[in-house]
Amino acid sequence: MKFQEVMDFLESKGNEQTCKIYRKHGAPENMYGVKVSDLKIIKKKIKINHELAMQLYDTGNSDAMYFAGLIADSQQFSEKDFEKWARNSYWYMIAEYSVAWNLAESPLWMCICKKWIDSKDEILEEVAWGALGCGLGYVPNDDIDIEFHTTLLKRVEKEIHSSFNRTKYTMNNYVIALGGAVAELTELCKEVGERIGKVDVNVGDTACKVPLIKPYIEKIEARGSIGKKKKTLKC
Q: Which residues, other chains included, contact 97 with Cβ-Cβ below 8 Å and sequence gap of 6+?
């Protein structure tokens, strides 16, 4: 499918009720309101098309930007590309999914994340912590630096409650992801989670809640999923 065909499809699948839901979550007005299930219909046809993904993302249309994340080739991004995508990610479904997924599957994952979590830039921190959490469920444990993440846990415990709004959310998810991905850190993550306690995040006019770290990791343990990895992060 070509660019205009994709945009026409997105427009045809848009509906106001989905727009209303997305607006409550912080989405911009530039969208059609396409359900993710409808995006998967053409994802199966297109699969991976990085050039098309870049075109779609540049439209600024939320549905096109989310879909761009699904069909982009994570291996083809430069650091400049990732920063452009991050800075143009107007709300969390783009920042924490479309951008974070691709960063987490990229060879640049840790290099960029380490830089961005120290950036003091709200959107870069949100994307970086989101990508760190995503990557832990994707990257083989042999490639995960246990010492680095142990140190990072201490930082999260110290800084999470004073961080930017969505950064708090992605930090919280990072601790859950680490406890679920690396068995030797599971208990430590639960202990840190217990000390962190409830994390207050403004989630807009929604019923969304920030998951408590320890109980969430215990659910992962209960279903026997500690250490299990995903073949792809994009969904």
A: 66, 69
